[in-house]
């Protein structure tokens, strides 16, 4: 289509033949950026009529070309002779020069000298050859206009232009920014890079500071290497430039007004960062090596440890927090983002200026792990944005023992994944510390200016194996032969400074000795460390420490105020038109508040939030479709049918209420749940809730449950009050959507690490949610939340149950059954209760009692014993579940139930009624599901059949 139009254009105009390609290129260049064509041509094209840009994001070429076709017929004849003939060789070459400039901007990085070892295999880039653009060495002395090139000259000989381009784009900095569609950002990079040829001239003081930081980085590894030979430390050797990089990042962010920086990183270089960036006391690290750590919790290996400190910058004190990290390399990324967002929300920092996320990645994991992509995808969304993350890849060109390009990834760079959000990528040779400094400044400035993610790809190497006990040359023989001969980054830089007379040998040695002495003394080695930190820079967690799960919470609420709030929530702004079914729900809620209708799940749940924010507890809820609710029960966000505008009644209750934030999330579980974990572990005062669209979706976030939620407190002493609502229930929806995999969470339970609840009434969910916020205990709460119960005619509550009740860990028999008559007790949780109840009523059975266990973990043994003790004549006791026998609560919780039963009566042996063992969580055929369900009800109620 494009070709065809252009052909038409030229064949009907007098500008034809050999000029076609030339004019076309020129015109395309003009469309991309008018400043890139020579002035005379710009003026000419400027005369052409414009299309209405407001109707199109991309300038449509076709109409312009068509206009151009008409105009060119009339106008080109009258162009002044001074504008030159289009067939002029010089003009054609001028355009080629501009295209050469563009080629360097787009692809120069592919020729950049990024690899300190010189082993990186680079693809050939024809676009960077003069010949490719119809130019040759014979043109090198010809003076051309420089177009939009920022080299301070409007015209320059081609050789100077090429020299500037080579130095800017093909030296030790390789910049990728041309994939950014925003012209302002592209121009920003061009200006910043080209004006200094990507290598600003730094003063002596800066250079010596760089050397001092490199000395620290290298010195620590050497020291640990000789004091603890062969002990795993995942040394930074080969990537020492990370330490000056971090130094600049922190200092520069501080000058921009950052108050907190949260860092996520895997194990490589972590000890170095802890000591040389965060200022951990060196003697504390040595104690860990010596096995002298105190055992307050279960602990973790030293290269997973987090840390906090405050450092001074020219912009003031900055709080640094290094997040604890499990061995699952990239999962800390969304956790850090969540922690940052929580801190930004606390500071009402909407733009992200005050709190900066920094993620340090390994090259193999960055390319390989899906959560990296998910985290990028969070970066500009309403619920998860943090004003841009500074990503640093410690690219040592090998992942454990795997380094072949064709094995580790499918794209040229490990950083290509960042392009999904158009993040600029600054590749830099780690052995050029000044270039590292420059790209760091660029990255911090870019984030500050555009509030978006940016990536520094620190191309370096790994001097030793994956860890210090690992021999790398077996798998990477050539690379390690090269590394053996490679002087350290510090050595190279010191030599460079000595050669340019910035440094003397003596001073270089003195720096090394000073650092070693500081280590010998076991002191802090970060000079900017603030010894008495400003504690206002972080949250006081002491009110939340030391509570048991049995801690009481008063979750009652004044009935009048609840009715007022409920009334307000049904008031909508003038002119706001809600959808018909939603109007009906609101009408029902008005009646529920008035006590004229039984309270259902949706009303009780939203009232839990409303009463909490009214009492000053902030609430944040995210997850797929949480505004409405997967099963359409919540309607916490209303949508105006006239213009689609959304309105959140709970966020607009009163001027002095606590914040209520609710966002539909992107379709991610792993990153989103990691984010909410990070948020919850940073903000004890906010009730943080994540809801899975269906319970089985949480499978995709299993690593977050395993490595953070269930064990973070015991490994790292980090409390977390995160609540997860996981829809669960056997309703014939097939193998996946029936089960939230209760058994998985129960398997992770020990030492009262999490709470697992299966509330079965609206009042129960109301009090469970309120309890989670009101009592100072900060423990994760996993909820098997219902689906059909949301509308079940028996799953209702009264207003009094909401206002005066509390969460009950077990629920007693509700029918008028005489306890003495009971010879069989059924214990169950969730939806199956109603199936049992209805059938028992239908069959008029009066010798079977049904009690519900609403909190499966921590198991409420005391409360259950109290409930059951009245059934003195019971001879049978069952656990009834819908899940297959190898799933649900049976295997993980039967010992608790058995103990309660046998304590009551040693002859009372626990039995099971439920589905048989099964590989699949549920039947896929409705008929089979119903048959199984019928059978388990019959088994439980002792009915024939
Ligand atoms: P941070 O800002 O994350 O460095 O936290 C500052 C201090 O608050 C930490 O050193 C801990 O003492 C405490 N703290 C932070 N998060 C938690 C948490 N989730 N549980 C308990 N204490 C915490």
UniProtKB/TrEMBL annotation:
InterPro entries recorded: 2-oxogl_dehyd_N, 2oxoglutarate_DH_E1, DH_E1, KGD_C_sf, ODO-1/KGD_C, THDP-binding, Transketolase-like_Pyr-bd
Pfam family, one: Transket_pyr
MF terms in GO: oxoglutarate dehydrogenase (succinyl-transferring) activity; thiamine pyrophosphate binding
The protein's Enzyme Commission number: 1.2.4.2
Keyword annotations of the record: Glycolysis, Oxidoreductase, Thiamine pyrophosphate
Coiled-coil boundaries: none
Cofactors (names): thiamine diphosphate
Ranges that cross the membrane: none
Entries under CDD domains matching the protein: TPP_E1_OGDC_like
Any one GO BP annotation for this protein: glycolytic process
Record field: catalytic activity: N(6)-[(R)-lipoyl]-L-lysyl-[protein] + 2-oxoglutarate + H(+) = N(6)-[(R)-S(8)-succinyldihydrolipoyl]-L-lysyl-[protein] + CO2
GO cellular component terms listed in the entry, alphabetical order: cytosol; oxoglutarate dehydrogenase complex
Domain of life: Bacteria
Domain Transketolase-like pyrimidine-binding: 599-792
Assembly with partners or alone: Homodimer. Part of the 2-oxoglutarate dehydrogenase (OGDH) complex composed of E1 (2-oxoglutarate dehydrogenase), E2 (dihydrolipoamide succinyltransferase) and E3 (dihydrolipoamide dehydrogenase); the complex contains multiple copies of the three enzymatic components (E1, E2 and E3).
Function of the protein: E1 component of the 2-oxoglutarate dehydrogenase (OGDH) complex which catalyzes the decarboxylation of 2-oxoglutarate, the first step in the conversion of 2-oxoglutarate to succinyl-CoA and CO(2).
Assigned protein family: Belongs to the alpha-ketoglutarate dehydrogenase family.
Family matches, as PANTHER family: 2-OXOADIPATE DEHYDROGENASE COMPLEX COMPONENT E1, 2-OXOGLUTARATE DEHYDROGENASE
UniProt cross-references to NCBIfam families, sorted A to Z: 2oxo_dh_E1, PRK09404.1, PRK12270.1
Protein name listed in UniProt: 2-oxoglutarate dehydrogenase E1 component
